[in-house]
Each structure stands twice: as C-alpha cells, then as structure tokens.
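REVIEWER CHECKLIST
Item 1: Sequence provided? yes
Item 2: Single chain? yes
Item 3: Sequence as submitted:
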Amino acid sequence: MSCTKRLLEPRPPSARLLAAALGSCRRFHAETVRHESRGLPIIHHKKYACELPPNHRFPMEKFPRVLHFLLGDQVITDKQVWAPEAASEDSLRRVHTDDYLKKFLSGKTSEPEQRRTGFPWSEGIVRRCRYETGGTLLAARLAQQRGLACSTAGGTHHAFPGYGSGFCLLNDLAVAARHSASAKRKVLIVDLDVHQGDGTAFIFKEEPSVFTFSVHCGKNFPVRKQQSDLDVSVEDGLEDGEYLATVEAHLPWLLDSFRPDLVLYDAGVDPHWEDELGRLRLTDHGLYQRDLYVMKTVVSQGVPLAAVIGGGYSRDIDKLALRHSIVHRAATQVWREAGL
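Item 4: Structure as written out by the authors:
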C-alpha cells in the first residue's frame, strides 16, 4: 500500500456513543427541505439507462431494477426519490479535457477509443453518462445538506481526463469531488469497488484537498495501476471477515488524519463471490456489514457521505440489482439510527 499526501495529526478518539455522535449531523438541516423528501435522499433518473447492442456485457438494465426493488420491498417511498439534472459541460470541464469532451459529446471518438471504453458511441450513452454524473453531484449536495444521500448509479472511476476506459466515460466521482473541493472543502473518496479507481487516482494525484483511498483486488483490472493516496491491494479469494478487517484498519485513521468535509463512497458489489469480474469471496451479508460500517463510521463523526453503487456484473439482472440495493438498505439503517 502507499500513502503520499501529508496528513494532519490525528484527533483524540471519541468515546461518545453513536447516537450522541450523530447529533452533530443535524447541522445539515440548515436549508429548507421539501416536506415530501424528509427521508433518506435516493437519487435516480430513468435516463441512467440507455439501449445497448444485443448481448452487450454491461448490465445496463440493473439501474431501473435497483429502484424497483427498493420501492417494492418498501425500503423507501417514492417521496424520497430525487431526480438529477444532466451534468453541465462546465462541470465536466472541471475534470475532462476540452478535446475529449468535444469528441465524446459530438460522437467523434474513434473506434479504438470506443473499444477501450467497452461502449459503442450513441446519443443515449452520452445522455446516460451526463445524468449519472449529475446524480452524483446531486447526491454530494444533498449529503452536505442532510448528512447522507445515495444514488442508484455512479462510480465510473476508470475515466481519465482525456479518455474513457473500462465501461467508464465520464468520471462522476471526480466531477463531484472537484466541485466540492472548489468550494474549499476537503473530500475523501472511499473506493471499495473490486477494481482500482485508476482514473480517479490519476486525476487527484497532485491535489491535496482530495484524498483517494482504494481497497481492490491486486490481480484484477486495470493491469496498470495508478497510485492512489492510499492503495490497499488484496489477494484473490479474500472473504468477509478479513476484508472488513482491512477496511476497519484504515478508515478511522484516515478520517481522524485527513479530516474531510465530505466522503464520496463507491460501494461496488463486484467483490461478491458470484460476480463475473470480481475474484474475491464476499457474501451479501459481508457487503451489508461493509456498507454499514463505512457509513456509520463516517456519519458518526459528523461528516456527510454520498454513496454511489459502483461496479457489479452478472447475467442475472434481478439478483445483481438486489445486490446493488444493499448500500441503500444499509444507509436506511444508518439514517434511522442517526435520527437525520
């Protein structure tokens, strides 16, 4: 593992119970909140999904199914659902080069460039990516107002400033982080997708206000890793207990040392034992405990957290969508215990 950015001296650990600690989160109620949206904010848009060629590897249908299961299982109500706007070109330029945006938005990317992303270009894919990025921006904004928010998409951490890669065309995490950092907020990106967030690591390698923390399978994609501020590379076959212990060994120290004003959490489910691209051995229960631990630990310190679903790959779309909904279910528990 590596850690490159200078950290502040740790604060003394707090002995307060979770309920007491969470009381500080009530400051996020400063702005007037619509009556119909007093529950945990869930950010979703029907344009998170678009049409792909038949038998395409990317499970595009999972996005509407995540919301379907959250509503159907009465985890949330439709009054909690916030619809984002598409990310503006100005917000995208905070991260991506003018040349890349011009080519991507207008359909001028080459066939080799499209093969690198895994997607053929279409107006639908551009629209999808802009709404997905807008959703992460909205999740970050609502988290800062209310303490916690979750999108039903996001986590496109392989996109670099000048090109897309690995099913990632616009880096939503980087756009949201840079937007917050531009307002003089410090942002911690906790990336627990099974693949290293190489694009995000590259984008923020020289930016002290954004700290990138990645726990990933070392022998998985991408073959050529970038250097995050803290990389924890784990071996194939890691199971629930050891994985959670790895996260527990680093997150509290990072929070105490870096002192973020916002945490962006990539809750990828591809560490699951059934994932087609994963190589780790986490269970549904392990993912739930992971998400619950991350969000409780962050929110208990009065730090707002915005979660995105990250990667997950299965031919069984319903099973995959249920797996992605784990983070929203865990967030709902945190929200209720916090009294947000």
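Item 5: Key structural point noted by reviewer: Confidence is low (pLDDT under 50) at residues 6-35.
Item 6: Recommendation: ____
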